[in-house]
Write a structure and sequence with these properties.
Radius of gyration: 25 Å
CATH architecture of the largest domain: 2-Layer Sandwich
Order of helices and strands: HHEEEEEEHHHEHHEHHEEEEEEE
CATH topology of the largest domain: Major capsid protein gp5 fold
Number of domains: 2
CATH class of the largest domain: Alpha Beta
Helix content: 25-40%
Structural class: alpha+beta
Largest sheet: 6 strands, mixed
Strand content: 25-35%
Distance between the termini: 68 Å
Strand order of the largest sheet: 7-15-11-8-10-9
Shape: globular
Number of helices: 9
């Protein structure tokens, strides 16, 4: 089978044909998203919303203040006046699909060595999906519309959008940035208390390698059984029962060191359902370029339910 026929057969097996040519089939879209999550530490644990239109609203509603009233007073049924009705707040965040692209090349000899269609289609989806996933996770955290980086300035990410920020630099830092236990304690103090206890099983500290290693060293220094275990084991670390998770994309930070206390269900990202993979043949170079086009965005369900420590930044002046 020649190269052009091989490519045509692979694309026929993973994309819609006809007027919508190039769009991944639904099951291949799911495979692509799975591959995106494979090497992305946080995307796999966060909440994915498949976008069937370029905009998707994330609505939330909550009751405020005292809800219950006495059913009877002195044996007489208590008829509530309207000012005693439970009040509620509504809020809405919105995902807006932003377009991103990537191109990868596969040389003819690699194509011929993957002559089985199923092996090649899996290789293409894995190659594109895993690389896109790590980059999209970087965008999810560090997106900033004011950035000079033309990738990161497409949208504001979780760090920019999140509330409850604390700062480790300047003349009046909120915490000792060189002590991981102090960072974690301050993040807990900054996190909204009603959500701290009732959803503790969903929480995690997200940290850089340095913060994780410092915490491991702090535990090792303790003359306790936990300190001894930390010396010989590489088990999942936790602070006050909350997992401490190393996030590799934090090493890409251009804003200094970062640590966060998050509820994974509150971290939302959307991928528009029409992901395309299209070939561009470069016969003179004996290769085929595969062009990925995807659209997505990130937000919170509630941007107030998070705490963010910016270790190397000073508190902004009022």
């Amino acid at each position: 089978m020649n190269t052009n026929s091989l490519i045509a057969n692979v694309l026929k097996s993973i994309t819609v044909q006809g007027l919508a040519a190039g769009i991944l089939l639904p099951e291949k879209f799911n495979k692509f998203v799975d591959e995106m999550q494979e090497d992305a530490t946080v995307l796999a644990k966060s909440r994915l919303m498949t976008m069937n239109s370029p905009k998707l609203q994330i609505d939330r509603i909550s009751l405020v203040g005292r809800v219950l009233r006495a059913g009877a007073i002195n044996g007489v049924h208590n008829v509530l006046s309207e000012d005693q009705y439970a009040e509620y707040n509504t809020a809405m965040n919105e995902l807006i699909a932003r377009e991103f692209q990537a191109t990868t090349s596969i040389y003819d000899n690699a194509l011929r060595s993957n002559i089985e269609k199923t092996a090649l289609e899996g290789h293409i989806l894995q190659l594109l999906g895993r690389a896109a996933g790590v980059d999209f996770e970087e965008l999810a955290f560090f997106g900033d519309k004011s950035s000079s980086d033309t990738f990161l300035n497409q949208t504001d990410g979780w760090i920019k959008k999140g509330k409850n920020k604390i700062y480790g630099a300047g003349t009046t830092p909120d915490f000792d940035k060189e002590t991981s236990t102090a960072i974690f304690k301050s993040l807990k103090a900054a996190y909204p208390k009603p959500y701290l206890t009732k959803r503790k099983d969903k929480l995690a500290f997200l940290v850089s390698y340095e913060v994780e290693e410092n915490y491991r060293d702090e535990l090792k220094a303790r003359p306790t059984t936990l300190g001894d275990q930390t010396l010989v084991n590489s088990n999942q670390l936790a602070y006050d029962g909350i997992p401490v998770i190393y996030v590799p994309v934090f090493e890409r930070s251009a804003i200094g060191r970062v640590a966060m206390l998050v509820d994974f269900d509150n971290l939302v990202y959307g991928i528009f359902h029409e992901v395309t993979v299209e070939p561009s043949r470069k016969a003179e170079e004996r290769k085929t370029n595969f062009v990925l086009t995807m659209e997505g965005d990130v937000h919170y369900e509630n941007e107030n339910v998070v705490a963010i420590a910016l270790l190397d930044q000073a508190k902004p002046t009022a």
